[in-house]
Design goal:
Blueprint lengths: L3 H21 L10 H8 L33 E6 L5 H19 L3 E5 L5 H9 L5 E5 L2 H4 L7 H13 L8 H12 L12 E4 L5 E2 L7 H7 L4 E3 L2 E3 L8 H11 L10 H4 L10 E3 L4 E4 H5 L1 H13 L1 H4 L4 H12 L5 E3 L5 E3 L2 E3 L3 H6 L18 H6 L2
Parallel strand pairs: 1-2, 1-4, 2-3, 6-10
Antiparallel strand pairs: 4-9, 5-11, 6-9, 7-8, 11-12
Helix pairs in contact: 7-14, 9-12, 12-14
The protein binds guanosine-5'-triphosphate (GTP), 2-acetamido-2-deoxy-beta-D-glucopyranose and magnesium ion.
Length: 382
């Protein structure tokens, strides 16, 4: 049974609907004017294919840009160490790498992991680029703490570091990562064919278009190590590193490059370490610098002393000391025009290079000459 109230509501509803339908008839040509007309509009074309599913014809797409002059290209690779769980951060970094640079240059990628990358990881990564992508697994002995490390001592030291709130001080995997990046990545099977690499990490930002090939600059100008940010290392992570470096140099006097960058590392001619290092989450470098005799011996010496596990030696100071002592200072290149951020620091190109790269970072947010930066030491060498 309909109550009178419901009856009134129903009638009012019909009146309002009619009013709307009739008001359309005063509207511009093309609007629905009758039920049959509306039907025509809501029934599909019958093809069974929604229009958006019809591909945009090929001729609308622009040809792939190729930016290498005269088609020249370096023997180079983009390399990223990551876990399956880092996927979203990896994707974010890689997409920016492609958009800002590699879409034009088509350098291949190598992803490395201490575990197998899963299918979802490989699928999402491969979708992001037309360049070749390879996924590699790190041999177990190049990742895990070597058997000759005294675990009792290593554990005691990790616990002390945790009590002192040293960042990653209690972590073994972090130490494995630092040791691997210091002494093994450049020997990996998948990196063997290459001479230059660009190291990328998850969740970094690239702020500017890079319209030239940095690998060709490295090659043509005989650079071996490129950086964007330099800063001081935490003393607590490297208490005996410099003493170990000095012992190594005493035992191997012939290995140091005479025109080295010691002035970047030390303010007293090598007596003490000022803790300056290039931030290795960004590196464009020559793999042969690490593969060469000097650095190979240097890494083996450090590894034997155990500081990667008894302390928490980072790959950043280890690479930096290696580059500064075994290369000429002119071979270490500051990529001023690459806008880059890895939390919590960023390098934002200044002046002309900011405009040239169409950078989206705020020029005033720039680490270069902040109190914790070492760039002034780099500048002073020249
Ligand atoms: N496969 C693998 N990759 C790792 C592991 N730990 C770190 N990495 C990778 O090694 C690189 C450095 O690790 P991060 O955790 O970024 O270390 P960080 O840059 O010193 O510190 P934050 O970025 O501030 O956390 C990144 O590319 C990581 O994805 C690990 O246990 N396994
Ligand atoms: C390992 O380190 C512990 C703690 O410092 C020490 O007591 C022990 O003698 C060491 N073991 C060896 C085999 O050197
Ligand atoms: Mg990182």
């Amino acid at each position: 049974m309909m109550t009178p109230m419901r009856y009134v509501v129903l009638v009012l509803g019909i009146i309002i609907s009619l009013h709307y339908i009739l008001s359309f008839s005063h509207e511009a040509y093309g609007r629905a004017t009758s039920i049959s007309n509306i039907k025509e509009h809501i029934v599909g074309s019958g093809s069974g294919v929604p229009p958006y599913k019809v591909p945009i014809p090929e001729e609308y797409y622009t040809a792939k840009e190729v930016a290498s002059p005269q088609g020249r290209k370096a023997n180079a690779v983009i390399v990223m160490l990551a876990r399956n769980g880092d996927l979203n951060g990896v994707i974010s970094s890689m997409k920016q790498m492609e958009d800002r640079f590699n879409k034009k240059f088509q350098y291949p990628y190598v992803f490395l992991n201490d575990d197998d990358f899963n299918e979802q990881f490989k699928k999402r990564i491969t979708e992001l680029t037309d360049a070749k992508v390879e996924f590699g697994r790190i041999p177990a002995d190049e990742w895990h703490q070597p058997s000759w490390i005294n675990e009792t001592l290593a554990k005691e030291n990790r616990e002390k570091m945790m009590q002192n709130n040293v960042i990653y001080g209690g972590s073994v995997p972090y130490r494995n990562m630092c040791r691997f990046n210091s002494g093994f990545f450049y020997r990996h099977e998948l990196l063997k064919p290459y001479k230059y690499y660009w190291r990328v990490e998850p969740d970094v930002k690239f702020f500017c278009d890079l319209d030239y090939d940095p690998f060709l600059i490295m090659q043509d100008q005989k650079k071996v190590y490129g950086f964007t940010i330099s800063l001081y290392e935490y003393e607590a992570t490297i208490p005996t590193l410099w003493k170990t470096v000095k012992d190594f140099l005493k035992e191997n006097p012939g290995l140091v490059e005479p025109d080295n960058a010691m002035a970047f590392l030390s303010d007293d001619g090598g007596e003490s370490y000022n803790r300056c290092h290039f931030w290795s989450n960004f590196e464009i470098a020559d793999l042969d610098l690490w593969r060469g005799e000097a650095y190979s011996k240097f890494f083996d010496y450090l590894d034997e002393k155990g500081g990667f596990y008894y302390e928490r030696w980072g790959d950043a100071p280890v690479h930096s000391i290696g580059a500064a002592l075994f290369a000429k200072k002119e071979q270490i290149h500051f990529f001023e025009d690459i806008g880059y951020r890895h939390e919590p620091f960023q390098h934002c190109p200044q002046g002309a290079s900011h405009k040239k790269g169409k950078c989206w970072c705020d020029e005033t947010q720039n680490f270069d000459y902040e109190w914790y930066s070492c760039l002034n030491r780099y500048d002073k060498m020249f």
